[in-house]
Amino acid sequence: MTPEEFRDAGHRLIDWIADYRINIEQMPVRAQVSPGEIKNRLPESPPEAPETIDRLLQDLDEIVLPGITQVQHPMHFGWFPSNASLASVLGDIASSGLGTLGISWESCPALTEVEQVVCDWMRQLTGLSEQWKGTIHDTASTACLTALLLAREQASGYSQNEGGLQSVPRPLVVYTTEEAHSSVTKATLLAGFGKQNLRLVEHEPTTRAMLPDALKNSIEQDIADDYQPAAVVASVGSTGVTAFDPVARIAEITSQHKIWLHVDAAMAGSAMLLPECRHLWEGIEAADSISWNPHKWMGTILDCALFYVKDSAHLIRVMSTNPSYLRSSVDREVTQYRDWGIPLGRRFRALKLWFHLRLDGPDAIRERLRRDLDNARWFAAEVEKTPDWRVLTPVNLQTVCIRHEPAGVEGEMLNAHTLAWVSEINQSGKAFISPAKIDGCWLVRVSIGVETCDREHVQCLWELIKSTASAGTDGFLMTNA
Amino acid sequence: MTPEEFRDAGHRLIDWIADYRINIEQMPVRAQVSPGEIKNRLPESPPEAPETIDRLLQDLDEIVLPGITQVQHPMHFGWFPSNASLASVLGDIASSGLGTLGISWESCPALTEVEQVVCDWMRQLTGLSEQWKGTIHDTASTACLTALLLAREQASGYSQNEGGLQSVPRPLVVYTTEEAHSSVTKATLLAGFGKQNLRLVEHEPTTRAMLPDALKNSIEQDIADDYQPAAVVASVGSTGVTAFDPVARIAEITSQHKIWLHVDAAMAGSAMLLPECRHLWEGIEAADSISWNPHKWMGTILDCALFYVKDSAHLIRVMSTNPSYLRSSVDREVTQYRDWGIPLGRRFRALKLWFHLRLDGPDAIRERLRRDLDNARWFAAEVEKTPDWRVLTPVNLQTVCIRHEPAGVEGEMLNAHTLAWVSEINQSGKAFISPAKIDGCWLVRVSIGVETCDREHVQCLWELIKSTASAGTDGFLMTNA
Questions:
Q1: Residue A82 carries which DSSP code?
Q2: Which residue of B25, B48, B53, B186 to mutate against A (max A Cβ within 10 Å)?
Q3: Which domain holds residue B444?
Q4: For every residue of chain B, which 3-state class applies, written as one string?
Q5: Overall number of domains in chain B
Q6: Residues in chain B closer than 8 A to A30 (CB atoms)
Q7: What is the model's pTM?
């Protein structure tokens, strides 16, 4: 494709995207397709002859769009917000158009240095001290794996450079809570620690925050049993109920025992743009690594996960490679981001943060986040004052965990009722919310914060929830009568 | 930013990208900046007020462009081709515009199923059998780490679900050659095997291909010494000199001992689009995993690394997570790509392959690859027939390893001479080539294959190389006289 052909097709595509975003509210929120339906509409064999952009745009409309759960839809309240702000989309487009190759500073100095600068801007915007150095990973899962590798190598005295994990005498142990994101367990397993060496520390039943005394006891017991504590992963805004582990008190314990403390703030990092929220990660300066995702609530399009460490020399020592064909005379003066993560090559991801921050401006972003917090408080208050409805966990941020608990509906019956009304709403395409299982019981997470979601959408959701759940109760009680 | 503001800015950006690609040949190939120069041109603090797209485009022109080593420039012959074909860029733009969230099939069925389909198209286009199931990773580094985790868990009977790697009695061993990509060592270390358990198997001195008998001996010796062979990583088109390990003979050995065989075809996978090149990975069907990067020579913009396995159930068993908030009623019927790699969330990467294959068509892609092979043969022949010049390794694909060896220049003097003329060319901005150190001696890799690189560019490079190296010799011999 020539640049002029690209210009023509590109203009059509930009219009298509703008129209898509304008019309999104008319689409069902949840994808309305069955498993295999999209696959079956695509040819089994690759194309022979070139096709036109018209044909591609038509397929985007007819095949792709119905197969998307519209996370940019203002009635999407599922999982966590996954905003793809259009300002950041422009940065992503610039990155694609440039087609740069990030394998060393020399291969694209701009890619490296803009990333350094925007990571530092984000550090300042979230109130972190200058001791933190950042980079952009794809996801918090990868950042968590990286953190646990750093912990493993710290605890084992760089066993990777000698006999590996098998040569380490005492079993290394990782601590987190049941409430932590699934990626913590995954990273523990992938880093080689083994499931038996993952401790799910007791949490407070209501807030679901880690109990520091329980952590302390668990660590001391392990040391007594000849285990070696290596890492604690604290959740700052957990995925289930947005729980906040008490970082300051945890850090006292990890500092004392020289245990790596990774703070997973994938979701709540965005909140730290607001000074009034920073008490939620009080003590953060004593952690060893932090990850958080601008690609969630803040809205810098996926994939954009920030990963900060204080000791970048340790990070580089664990992750570095230095092949001859990438060496250059400036190696000592520059940052080589290939030594800050798993992949060698990287896209010019910094551009999406750069565009987002500059085109929208931090004030507008902060204003939007405050709007969402306000909407969450409003919604929680509505739920609380309505009979048979409960807010189940503290509303620390913008996610509200609720349940409809009509009289006489309990246990498995209540679970079935909850899943039934959620499913009905999701299937309707009018809104999307996610159920989550906590202590064996299903609840419903209403996660507010899509960029285009205003109070009216939250009101609309609440009406929909009430009517669907009530109707469900009637039918349900009759069926089970 | 509203969709209408995006529309306006997007059109400007598309024009900017088209113009950039048109004018790229007028720019220096190598970035002409010093360490810190770009950083120093950017504000230390984040912006306060929103800025305009004009300002951003101006900064792209004035700050970013000078800081890019132009891998899309037809005179770029460095590293490996890293083509960002404009057809694939359009797919990437569509992905950005859609802003989908790939965390489960349900979150975006189209993302999952288009990825399944295009991975299968690529399988067919490279002549692999139906037993291979594919997914898209960011890079071959990540794919290699994944492969070694699969090997580790196969060899250890899923130790990750119990006591982890520390509970495995015999040290697990990984085999590759010195010629393998740096990511193999990195993955071995990150997966916990330890450097002492990485065997660099002897290679044939000229082709630098692994010697199967040496592999066999090494494995047998390890077994005798109570080590447990776990994985072999074979290079199909190595990064240094495009060496090809003999996959068929290696697979005989790994099959016999039930050792995981990962084939790193990051570069040479593109060549497998050409039936006449497939003898280069003969025996591939007996491997356990394969990775190759359409984002290299084939030109589907980074990041797009294909990862294929035969036993996807094993892959899922090692990589799976199943948190409650992602469970849905269709889980058993669909593919959950979060269980095929490290990150939970993924972009709609399949769109760039889908657009690339459909807009350009496989025929045009194959034609371009054949043009590059022909140019490499022409260039190698020119070098070979020129006095004082040598082609050092077999020209298996499109990379030609050469050296200027004027009479009387040897050893460290020759190294200094080689680095001097390469450096002069790279600094001139007229072309870019990468030196590489093989057995202690520097050689120069001329890697042909940028999408816009025609015979005239290769001719131009050869004239530049000859004149620069000769002039260098004169000066060099005088300086050292």
A1: -
A2: B186
A3: 363-479
A4: CCHHHHHHHHHHHHHHHHHHHHHHHHCCCCCCCCCCHHHHHCCCCCCCCCCCHHHHHHHHHHHHHHHCCCCCCCCEECCCCCCCCHHHHHHHHHHHHHCCCECCCCCCHHHHHHHHHHHHHHHHHCCCCCCCEEEEECCHHHHHHHHHHHHHHHHCCCHHHCCCHHHCCCCEEEEEECCCCHHHHHHHHHCCCCHHHEEEECECCCCCCECHHHHHHHHHHHHHCCCEEEEEEEEECCCCCCCECCHHHHHHHHHHHCCEEEEECCCHHHHHHCHHHHHHHCCHHHCCEEEECCCCCCCCCCCCEEEEECCHHHHHHHHCCCCHHHCCCCCCCCCCHHHHCCCCCECCCHHHHHHHHHHHCHHHHHHHHHHHHHHHHHHHHHHHCCCCEEECCCCCCCEEEEEECCCCCCHHHHHHHHHHHHHHHHHHCCCEEEEEEECCEEEEEEECCCCCCCHHHHHHHHHHHHHHHHHHHHHHHHHCC
A5: 3
A6: 106
A7: 0.96
Question: What is the interface pTM, i.e. ipTM, of the complex?
Answer: 0.96
Examine residue B82 and state whether it is found in any structural domain, yes or no: no
Q: Looking at residue B475, which CATH number applies to its domain?
A: 3.90.1150.170
pLDDT for the residue B224? 98
Task: State whether A51 and B5 contact (CB < 8 Å).
Answer: no
Last residue of a domain, one of B360, B391, B421: B360
Average of per-residue pLDDT values in chain A: 95
Give the domain-ending residue among A314, A338, A360. A360
Question: Residue B277: which CATH number?
Answer: 3.40.640.10
Q: Are residues B232 and B281 in the same domain?
A: yes
A171 with B164: Cβ contact below 8 A: yes
Are A297 and A413 contained in the same domain?
no
Q: Are residues B198 and B285 in the same domain?
A: yes
The reply to whether residue A99 touches residue B82, judged by beta carbons under 8 angstroms, is: yes
Interface probe for B, chosen from A25, A26, A95, A98 (most Cβ of B below 10 Å), is A98
pLDDT tens by residue, A237-255: 999 899 999 999 999 999 9
In a domain, A461, yes or no: yes
Q: If you measure CA to CA, which chain B residue comes closest to A147? A: B190
Q: Which two tokens stand for residue B129?
A: 């059998």
Q: Are the Cβ atoms of A436 and B192 closer than 8 angstroms?
A: no
Q: Which of B87-91, B262-266, B408-412 has the lowest mean pLDDT?
A: B408-412
Mutate to test the interface with A, among B15, B32, B41, B98 (most CBs of A within 10 A): B98
In this structure, the answer to whether residues A186 and A328 fall within a common structural domain is yes
The answer on A138 and A60 residing in a single domain is no
- CA-based radius of gyration for chain A: 24
Bridge-partner residues for A442, per DSSP?
A437
Residue A406 lies in a domain: yes
Please indicate, yes or no, whether residues A355 and A378 belong to a single structural domain of this protein. no
**Is residue A244 located within the same domain as residue A371?**
no
B-chain CB neighbours of A315 within 8 Å are none
**Do B163 and A197 make contact, defined as CB atoms within 8 angstroms?**
yes
CB contact under 8 A, A194 and B92: no
Indicate if B400 and B447 belong to the same structural domain.
Answer: yes
Quote the mean pLDDT of chain B. Answer: 95
> Highest-confidence range of B222-226, B433-437, B469-473, by mean pLDDT?
B222-226
Contact B99 A71 (CB under 8 A): yes
Cα separations (Å) of A223 from A220, B36, B86? Answer: 5, 46, 58
pLDDT band per the 50, 70, 90 thresholds, residue B87: very high
In a domain? residue B84: no
Contact flag B106-A31 (C-beta cutoff 8 Å): yes
- Nearest neighbour of A35 by CB, restricted to B11, B330, B342: B330
Low-confidence ranges of chain A (pLDDT < 50): 480-481
